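Teaching assistant's notes for section 4

Start the section by putting this record on the projector. Ask students to predict, before seeing the second block, whether Oxygenase MpaB family protein will look compact or extended. Collect guesses on the board.
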Amino acid sequence: MGESERFARLRRILALDADRDCEEIFRLLAEHEFPWDIGKALEFALFRTYAVPAVGRLLDRTGEFVRCPQRRYDDTTLLLYEIFHSGPSGARGREALARLNAIHGRYRISNADHLYTLSTFVVTPTRWLDRYGWRRLHPHEVRALTNTMRRMGEGMGITGIPEDHAGFVRLFDDYERDHFGFHPGGRRVAEATLALFASWYPRPLRPAVVRAARCAMEPHLLAAFGFPEPSPLGRALVDRALRTRAALVRLGPVRPDSRPAAPVPLSYPDGYRIGDLGPASSRRPRREGGRTGREHPDQCRTGPQ
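Reveal the predicted structure now:
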């Protein structure tokens, strides 16, 4: 495969407007150019929020991420997918945003914590792709990604949203410096999430998966959870493995337009409705237009063990 074919979608993206067409650009990035990378980056983005004691304490108190980690992971993944696939301004995107707001509305979450969470959705993917993407993001793409997240934040009613990527970076770094800290609830949620990630792999590989995930975390994030610092060799091996994967992806086939990446939720094998997502206590009467599928009780479903 020639360089021209590999970079054809980038040329298509550069022909779009990063402000007007930001949702389309992000969809091309997340579903075609970098689906695995952006998926992993957003997993780490949400994971980082547990290191804020107020957030970690709240999530631990609900018990949802410890009792039903696969179900809550799938709910979060599907809500974000609906928001980004349709766009925060699209019909299903607006419905998913309303569902997300209904879930968050049950709790006292400060605007500052919402802002930080939004910043993780901007900064974590861009930094991940700069380091481990098969190519680096073009500034045009960074602007489009930032604008898409700004639209989502506006739909969530968040105030004080930064105007550009640099503003999100400052907010992200300042907030982590000033607010990261250890809380036993945050650690419990983090451990449950790491155990979930490991459960997707054969049992003999699970300890290595957890160690690899920790090797990808910065020292201040590890310290906030009370996790030990990995060995330099372990960090180097994980870094090299991710960079090698990027090089292989660059040499591999381009994902066709006809095959966009989409989540495969283990908790909803027969389909889902947007109104079904999230804890049962936060659900509103079902709306029309959701995806058809059998109703699911609010029970924990786990993937293959």
